[in-house]
Amino acid sequence: MESSPPLANEPPADRELLALPPPRRPWRRATLATLGLGALLSVSLAFLLLPDARYSLHAGGAKDIGELAHARLGPDLENAWVRAGGQLSATQAVRFRRPLERDSYRLARSEDNPNVWVQIRVPEGEEDPRFVPPDSFVGRLLPLSAAGLRQGGLADAVDRAGLGPLRENSWLLLDGESPAADRWVLGLLVLLAGFTTFNVVGLVRLSSSIPSVSGREA
């Protein structure tokens, strides 16, 4: 925005003030970068949570796929709520914990189907050498390639435990994870949408308020 020329009847002091260059705003670029980065991170996180959000909207009961040894795993079972049975390996297993949770988790390979790994939740105080894993499961089934943000470290945990890398065609069965238990993801998506809107609106307003001064950066 160009300043208007001083009027002839204005006092000398006012003419001198009008002739001064616009003030520099050294933090403007930092603010623009922060708003842009905030919007980008919010959109990226929301995109990673979309599979969890779709699963949380599942309606109806769990699909019975029978024993894991005979289960035909395909695209129709991706991100599905299923009921299955089978034995878990006592040696091909790894234990891990999640932040802010007192219970631990065990990820074990199916004895009946080596392409399936089952994650079970172990209540606090019950994780010991005599722990007997269940032989029936109700939870979320998804291929390893479609593992979401919360399951992203499972493959590394198996590799660090010396059990070898998971096969590319491996599947994960997250026992106890029902669609209703994942409804909190919808609230998080709404919050991320609010963050994105706030950052984008602030970015647009701040960008449009930058004055255009010839030969001088605002």
Give a description of the structure.
The structure is a single chain. It is elongated, with a radius of gyration of 28 Å. The protein has two domains: about 30-60 and about 180-210; about 60-180. The chain is built from five helices and seven strands. A hairpin with a 6-residue loop joins strand 3 (about 90-95) and strand 4. It is α/β, with parallel strands linked by helices and about 220 residues long.
Comma- or semicolon-separated keywords:
218 residues; alpha/beta; 2 domains; disordered C terminus
Strand content: 15-25%
Terminal Cα span: 10 Å
Oligomer: single chain
Main sheet properties = 7 strands, mixed
Radius of gyration: 28 Å
Strand order of the largest sheet: 1-2-6-7-5-4-3
Q: Helical percent range?
A: 25-40%
- The class by helix and strand makeup works out as alpha/beta
Number of helical stretches of at least 4 residues:
5
**What is the arithmetic mean of pLDDT?**
81
Provide the succession of SSEs: HHHEEEEEEHEH
Poorly predicted regions: 212-218
Number of domains: 2
Which helices and strands occur, and which strands form pairs?
Blueprint: H1 12-19, H2 28-48, H3 50-56, E1 63-67, E2 80-85, E3 88-97, E4 104-110, E5 116-122, E6 136-143, H4 154-160, E7 171-175, H5 184-208
Parallel strand pairs: 1-2, 5-7
Antiparallel strand pairs: 2-6, 3-4, 4-5, 6-7
